[in-house]
Design brief:
5 helices; 4-stranded mixed sheet; 4 strands; alpha/beta; elongated; Pyruvate Kinase, Chain: A, domain 1
Amino acid sequence: MAGIKEIKNKIESVSEIQKITNAMYLVASVKLRRAREALNNTKPYFDALKGEISVMFSNIEHVESVNFLPEGVTEDNDTPLPGKYAYLIITADKGLCGEYNHRVIREAEKLIKEHDDNLIFVVGENGRAYFSSHGYPVDENFKYTAQNPTVDRARMICDEVAGRFEAGEFSKIYLVYTEFGNGMNSKCISKRLLPLHRAHFNELPGESENMFEFVPSVEKVLENVIRNYVVGYVYSALVESYCSEQNARMSAMNSANNNAAEMLETLRLQHNHARQDEITQEITEISSGANALKVSSDKR
């Protein structure tokens, strides 16, 4: 059995680690709450944008836009299109969050292998390091942190990625991220970000479709509004992923805290046993010494 001093050192080390994991748990919980509040504050605006796009479609019979699939093509993420595909993948900057990063990477790899000509845009240092080290075609100039997502950052991402799509560099852009849900069943999903499909905007807000006049034209206004809609979609994905990361980190740190508590309990038991053995040994030595003195005294 290990000595008392060694056990004490282990107890001190585990206690210090437990303090760190507990602090990380609390920090992650605060970040999660703030991110959800930010998303809830901006969500009505982007929901309204989707409604306005629906209104515009009620005034357009045919859509001719690079941002939409051609007329007659069904709404299907697997509809093949010629040219290069792009993938916007959202991971974390750090580890210590369970399988969060691994799930995103597995989903992205599965999607990438379905097409030969690809370009990858990665948000988050963890995913960027993985894809770069495994020989995937990563855009090295695209470097955005996954921490503290904002609408401004989502807009910058869309200006670069969607701008290159509109310029004809890609025929499709996929978004791979983790959907937070209610926190209990977060899952990694992949969706086609561009081109969009008209069927996605079939939800008309009542009878308001004839209440507006669009200047200079519905098509021009639609082109402008679509970019803002895509920004909202990317921002939502950034926040959902960030919340999922913090939730996964909370779960990982909670497990670490529980494991540390169990280890401390075991170490304290070992410490008590070692201390008891030491006391027993001391009593035995004192008793043996006393008996030896008594024997020696009797012989005299």
